[in-house]
What we know:
The chain is mainly β. The protein has no helices and 23 strands.
Amino acid sequence: MWGGAELCSGAEDSEAILAVQAQGEANRCWTVIWSGFGPGQSFWLSWRKALVFPGIALPRRSGFTAGCIMKTQYPRYGWLMGLMLGGMFLFGIVGGRSADPAGVPRVVDPGPPPSDAIVLFDGRNLDAWESEQGGPARWRIEDGAMVINGTGNIRTRRAFGDCQLHIEWATPEKVEGEGQGRGNSGVFLMARYEVQILDSWRNPTYVTGQAGAIYGQAAPLVNASRPPGQWQTYDIIFRAPRRDGSGKVVRPATITVLHNGVVVQDHFEIQGSTYLERPQYESHPDKLPLVLQDHGNPVRFRNIWIREL
Length: 309
């Protein structure tokens, strides 16, 4: 039998949605929704816009029956739920989206940096950074770049989880040392998952320690390094680990890295904190600062921005 209908609307610029529910046999039910018309308009003229979703009828509770609840296949409709009280169905939309037509992405000016990016360093100051030990960041600024000067790691004042990160860096033009002692630094996502920075131009070292490596875990797919002193770029897509209610990791962190525009990590599943000899996941918040490492070499950084995903 048909249960009833109600016109539901959200913000002023939302499309109105009308939901009609039918209680079927056993524990099945169906909900039909129409969209694209305003309050007061007849839904009988809108059959061509109907979308039908199956759901599960919930058991009787305290004199009313929860007629149906289901997750729609269209993100803007979210969860739909209908309740029957005193022979009358009441409808609501739980967690639905509004405003933009379905499937139309929001507009972002690509820049650079993109209009929705958080600029972490633009060559003028270190306001977005602090010392990892607390207090102001003390790296020096020189010719629009911040330069490692032996005062320790720095971290962002803000915390981040899933993100797109752009960072430009350059190892010293004057070559000193070899292996891990040559132009060494690192970008730590969530303060514990490191993308290695190193002068890897004709500088042999262990493969999980060269530029573009996930330190100690994954060698870069290729060596895309430029000569010492030249500016290089990392573009990083990072997804933080996901945990269940008990804190157990149910989906590992993943990372994609482009080094100078070349893919060197392709959706790699991080095995845990990279500074541990035997990587494992440690308990930590959903968001943590980004850390840049002071490894004792005067590596330079510029044009750092991040987008939260």
